[in-house]
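Researcher: Re-running this chain for the archive, since the previous output was lost when a drive failed. Same request as before.
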Amino acid sequence: MRPRLKTLVFGVVVFSLVLAACNSPQKKKASTEAAAGLPPVKVFKVVRQSISEKVMATGAIEAWRKITITPDVGGKIAAINVNEGDFVRPGQVLAELDTEATRLQFKQAEAGFLVAQAGLKDAQKNKERMDRLMAEKAVSDQQYEKIQLALEAASAQFEQAQAALQLAKHALDVSIMKAPFGGVIASRNAEVGDVINPMMGSFSPTSGVLTLVDFSRIKIHVEVSQDEVLPLKKGQRALVRVSVFPGREFEGKVSVVNLVADSVTKKFGVEVAVDNPDLALRPGTFGEVVFEVRTHDRAIVLPQKAILDNTYVFLLQNGKAVRREISLGLQNRTLVEITSGLAEGDLVVAEGNFGLEDGAAVEIIGEVTL
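Model: Regenerated structure tokens:
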């Protein structure tokens, strides 16, 4: 009996182990399948905050002032005192023409002026003497008229000599090229020994001797659609962003709003002026302009990705995603104002909402923040 009892006990133990081995994976598998059946989602807790509707456009950055330094008279360049990238102050001498011939012309004009001045003084004295004699009836009318005409001729010769002197002085002055404002030399367009002709200055953007720019203030010209231009007005605040300074915004103002659309693009030109004291914004590069056209404070807001078909969201209630119809207000690239359908503190499915069915149970795996 005892050997038979041992055999029975051994058989029961083996059977129990086999049954346990069979049942345990099935239970784990069933549990895993049950958990995997719930779609994972991330939720957003509805908050109140300020939201702005924005218009964005990209344009090229330009210097506020730019000028090509060119003399008013032609001649050979004798000296260029600056190079590209140099900072210059107002009135600084930048370049000079060969002035030897101009100085001789000035001396000639100066001498002619002195001769005409002396002739005028002599004619004036003669006229004064003639006036006294005429009062005493000591001269004839013909003699008096002759002195009068001599004075008029001397006055005309004096004015002619004075104009010639001023013209010679002007030619001498403009042969020395000075900076009309402070800025940076953007380009050097000629070399010492080149002959410059001011009449050719408008045929090329690099004509003249030097190009001077002042970008302590810059301007950006952008184009916007008819719907976008309507809320924009002169003096309105605008922000400028450039890729080389991520996270930094430069504040400016709208300086020009064109009321006539471009005949080709059918868009409206808008110019923004921005102070640039540290010269961080460089002409010739691109910047993004952001216009805040309307702002609502303490608005109910959601991330853009939480809204489906611009009409509804999934509200989380008792572990289930419940469809909720909403109305939209202001929008920008990241946020949307909700004017009806939600309250502050509601939990809305912000990720994993595509393909959800109304009333479906979900598994929360995280929270989305702004």
